[in-house]
Amino acid sequence: MPTSSSWWPPGDDTLVDGGLTLLPWSQVGTIAGAREDLFAASTDPRMVAWTTVPSPVTSEMLNEFFDSVPKGVLRWAIVVEDRYAGNIELRLKPDDAAHFGYNTAPWARGRGVMTRAVKLVTDYAFSLGAKTLRISVLPGNIASRHVAEMNEYVFVGKHNGHVHYHRHAE
Ligand SMILES: CC(C)(COP(=O)(O)OP(=O)(O)OC[C@H]1O[C@@H](n2cnc3c(N)ncnc32)[C@H](O)[C@@H]1OP(=O)(O)O)[C@@H](O)C(=O)NCCC(=O)NCCS
Predict the structure, then answer these.
(1) The predicted structure's pLDDT at residue 4
(2) What is the rounded CA–CA span in Å between residue 82 and residue 34?
(3) Superfamily (CATH) of domain 15-168
(4) Residue 103 pLDDT > 60, yes or no?
(5) What separation in Å is there between the alpha carbon of 109 and the centre of ligand 1?
(6) Predicted local distance difference test score (pLDDT) of residue 135
(7) Ligand 1, from 91, 134, 146: best to mutate by most atoms within 8 Å of Cβ?
(8) Rounded to the nearest whole angstrom, what is the distance from the C-alpha of residue 2 to the centroid of ligand 1?
(9) pLDDT for 54 beyond 80
(10) Distance (Å, whole) CA 91 – CA 53
């Protein structure tokens, strides 16, 4: 993490787009059933295939994820129809760029949730003064590549087994 940054740490803001709400992770406990929905999502086969979630994951690991956010990470719970629908986060990197991590709960997939969530967070970060945002994806993760491309993230190449996209502030 950089020792100083012009835009980090951001505030604890709720972001809203119609029926989609990004709730600061500090409030995730206010969503009914969120812990159970997070646990279910974390063992879903696509989560295991495409993310770094440990497999098998223990309840201790998930409780730690649920109860705290590491320094240098800004995380929101995605809420749709009053239900936990996934999470999205930015991780500040040493070069002052921020890197996305995200997942949609299985029940909420395929209806544009993550495309809209990435747009909300992208617009928010740029409005605060972020200069560069990045998304890295395993090559076969077509849904996640769509999310990046539909948000005008630009393909910059492949290395370390990942496909990399970035977007700069205008
Ligand atoms: C990747 C992921 C976050 C997408 O979330 P989502 O809310 O379903 O995404 P959207 O509904 O916004 O869909 C994005 C695009 O991908 C397409 N898509 C969705 N699922 C797809 C699939 N399984 N295969 C191919 N395309 C798919 C959608 O059709 C949409 O494109 P379109 O608008 O042109 O139709 C979700 O599949 C997920 O959580 N996967 C497991 C965790 C993960 O991969 N995280 C990202 C790691 S980089």
Answers:
(1) 66
(2) 10
(3) Gcn5-related N-acetyltransferase (GNAT) (3.40.630.30)
(4) yes
(5) 7
(6) 98
(7) 146
(8) 31
(9) yes
(10) 16
